[in-house]
Amino acid sequence: MRGRHKAWAVPYLEEHPDICLKTIDETDPFFACEKLYLEIGIGKGDFIVGMSKKLDGNFLGLERERSIIGMAAKKIEAESLPNVKVMAEDFDFVYEQLSKLRFDAIFLNFSDPWPKKRHAKRRLTTSGRLKAMGALLKEGGRILIKTDNDILYAFTMEEIPSCGLELVDATDHYEFDESNDVMSEYERNFRGQGKNIHRIELRKGA
């Protein structure tokens, strides 16, 4: 579920370096806050915008599709949210920069499931990528994963034992928790189709 090319998106991102970062400067006061969160694959930004209003702290969002992240950046600007910044980058490509930071939580909402078996290594929830995300967490930090895709859910559960993180909770029928969660545009769409939402919570131990 990807949006069409938006010719305005790249110029808009270039014109708003206060929202869309090109690189990570770990000395930036934005990253020195007490609570710091990361969403990988922010889509059109509904989740990160909503969570930034629910939780104290700063949010960094990654999205590789520039037309999509352009729409998210517009929402962030419209809401005047100083605690949200985004990067038009793929997680793998920007990981070395991210390694300078430590997050309280990392959110993966409806990541591309790459359903064909030969593409499994591209999934965000491979053991190697989960281990890499774990290295970005503070002690006790969490990874929160939601997906509608049965294949990705089963695959992720198989990868968890070798990723070095504690499985706190997993359900294939997640009842939305309005007080602690926000629906992305994808979740609203999938729930509207009557699909079950799967949710996994991982935690980094001492």
What does this structure look like?
The chain has a single domain, classed as Vaccinia Virus protein VP39 (Rossmann fold, 3-Layer(aba) Sandwich), CATH 3.40.50.150. It has helices at residues 9-15, 46-54, 66-79, 91-98, 127-135, 150-159, 185-192, and strands at 36-40, 58-62, 84-87, 103-109, 137-147, 166-171, 198-203. It is an alpha/beta fold. The radius of gyration is 16 Å and the shape is globular. The longest helix has 14 residues, at 66-79. The chain has a seven-stranded mixed beta sheet, sandwiched between helices. The mean pLDDT is 94. Helix 2 links the parallel strand 1 (36-40) and strand 2 (58-62). The protein has seven helices and seven strands. Helix 1 (9-15) packs across helix 3 (66-79).
Record the SSE blueprint.
Blueprint: H1 9-15, E1 36-40, H2 46-54, E2 58-62, H3 66-79, E3 84-87, H4 91-98, E4 103-109, H5 127-135, E5 137-147, H6 150-159, E6 166-171, H7 185-192, E7 198-203
Parallel strand pairs: 1-2, 1-4, 2-3, 4-5
Antiparallel strand pairs: 5-7, 6-7
Helix pairs in contact: 1-3
Short précis:
The protein has 206 residues and is of the alpha/beta class.
Integer-rounded radius of gyration: 16 Å
Low-confidence stretches: none
| CATH secondary-structure class | Alpha Beta
Helix content: 25-40%
Question: Which class best fits the helix and strand makeup?
Answer: alpha/beta
CATH names the topology as Rossmann fold
| SSE run | HEHEHEHEHEHEHE
**Strand percent estimate:** 15-25%
Secondary structure: number of strands: 7
* Order of strands in the sheet with most strands: 3-2-1-4-5-7-6
CATH superfamily: Vaccinia Virus protein VP39
H/I helix tally = 7
Q: How does the overall form come out from the CA principal axes?
A: globular
